[in-house]
Every structure is written in structure tokens, then in C-alpha cells.
Design a protein that fits this description.
With 341 residues, the chain is α/β, with parallel strands linked by helices. The chain folds into 2 domains: 2-258, Aldolase class I (TIM Barrel), CATH 3.20.20; 268-338, Four Helix Bundle (Hemerythrin (Met), subunit A), CATH 1.20.120. The protein has helices spanning 2-17, 31-40, 53-57, 83-95, 110-114, 125-138, 156-169, 189-192, 200-209, 224-232, 242-246, 248-252, 255-258, 268-284, 290-293, 306-316, 324-338; strands at residues 20-22, 46-52, 74-79, 100-105, 142-148, 174-178, 214-218, 237-240. An 8-stranded parallel beta sheet has the order 1-8-7-6-5-4-3-2, with helices on both faces. Helix 2 (31-40) packs antiparallel against helix 14 and helix 16 (306-316) runs antiparallel to helix 17. The radius of gyration is 20 Å and the shape is globular.
Amino acid sequence: MHGKTLTDNRKANIIKAARLSIAPMMDWTDRHCRTLHRLMSREALLYTEMVTAPALVRGQAVHLLDHSVQEHPVALQLGGSDPEELALAARMGVDAGYGEINLNCGCPSDRVQSGTFGAVLMKTPALVADCVAAMRGAVDVEVTVKCRIGVDDQVPEDVLPVFLEHIRAAGCARVIIHARKAWLKGLSPKENREVPPLDHDLVVEMVRVFPDLHISLNGGVVSLDQAVALLDRGVDGVMIGRAAYHAPYDILGAADKVVFGAGEVRRAEDVVRAMLPYIEAHLASGGRVHQITRHMLGMFAGRPGARAWRRVLSEGAHRDGAGVSLVLEALRRVEDASCPV
């Protein structure tokens, strides 16, 4: 009974956190990035980069699951299309401590397509349902799906409800919808994040059609004010991607107060100082400072001294011996610009 209570509490915490989440982004949302984000928001739900089920199950790349308890609430995103393999990978994720397992049905890259997962799965909702059912049978945490509104020549108004019906029937209770189609041929992954038109209205409509699903909207959200406006329209959650990476403090600095109605706003300078012990520990374990500071370049976006902050970190972080003193020097440039003599 005690174990069931812990599981129920974890699920409740994840659902609460899903009111605002940071999107899984390849090469970006690694454990260093998530540590930085967690120092700004105690409440928002964080996601890993996509980890492929074959890498975990066949390649035994368990290091891809590395994270710390300080990052929670945090979810693992998996890529794959083999139900049995995804179930095994999901089990590995839960054993590693993740509170949610998410299935990627939205990534449009050629590499993902060649592996028959990502956005191409929008074409096979029955297979996605089989994957969800297998994963749910293997773990006691929530299994969620991140999808597009459609791909290629599909009509989103027709295919999206069918897709949602399939995954709901398989036991998926929470879905994140990127409110753009994905074009599997002719557009790069970057273009697929920008060129297909947004359709926030369709996602809002799905909330009405599927009142029993927890639906988060992703795509084109660039500010906390916009996120709150979408929540006011009825979506259960908002997921923010690139804006939260390029200007993390603008999104997460006031997120707990504005979106969750809890907590105080921490100054960006104090967040940077709070990262210093983490940086020191990373260096002591043999890491390099640029592995962390690359995620911090946008901390002062739009503020006096932001350019000097980026320049000091970008030019110095790859040098031998670079460490905490470099970050402090970059921070001094910001503080000097903010308090001119």
C-alpha cells in the first residue's frame, strides 16, 4: 500500500507540473540544461532529450538515463516503434527514477523516419496504440504521447481525432500536441518547426472533444503571457520549446509565480551563482565547463551586458583550465552594465 501511495503521489505531482513543461529538444535538454532550468522553476515539468529504445535495449546505453533527483519532476522521452522493445526501455526508465515515460510521435527528421518512429507514426495510430499498451503494461508511471496534428497531406481535422481515440483506448490519459503538421519530405527539421502554419484552435477543439484527456499544447509559444492566455482558453497544459532554451530566464524565472501561483521570483544573477557548485562538481568529475555554459548563454537575453556575457563564455569556455572564474567574469560584465558608474 505504501508503494501505491508513493506512485499515486508521483503521478499527481507530474500532472500538476504539466501545466507548464519544457519540451524535449535534441542536443539541448540534457541533464546540465535541466539542472539550470530547475534552479529557476521548482514546479515546471522537464523532459529529457529523446532516447531511442534500441539504444537502451540493444545498445545498453544506460548512461543516457543519467539524471539527478534535483531535476524532478522530470520525464523520459523515448523513440521507437516496437512495442516489446519500448516496454523494456520504459521499464529501464522507471528503474532509473523517471516519473513519466513519453513516446515521441512528432519528430520529423530523416534519421527518425528511417527508424520508423517519430512523426511518421501519425500514419499508424493502431501501432502507436499497441506501443502505448505495451509500455503501460510494463510500468506503473504515466505513459504519455507527444504528437503532431498530422503529417504530409493528411487533413488534421480528420486524422488527429482518430489518433487520439486510438491512444486513449490504449490507456494514454495525457498527450502533448505540437500544433503544426510535419512534412516528412521537403522540409528540414528546423523548417518543420517554423514553416507549417500553427493551428492552436484545433488543439483547443480537441480539449472539448476529449474532455477525459489531459491535453498540452506545444508550438509557437514564446512567452509566459502567451502560455497563460492558452491556459485560459482551456488547454490543460502548455509546453514551451526553443523560447525556453534561448531565453530561459524570461520563461522560467517567473513561471512558478505566474503559472502555478507559488514561489518567489529569483534573480537571474542568483541563478547563475547557484549553478557554480554544480559546475565545480562537474569539473571535478572530469567534465568541461562549456558542456554546461552552452546552456546558459541566453540567461540575460535582452538585458544590458547580455552580449558581453555571451562573448566571454563563448570565447573562453573551450580553453584549457576554464572554470568557475570564467562564469564569474562573464557575470561581472552583466552587473557592470546594469549598474553603470
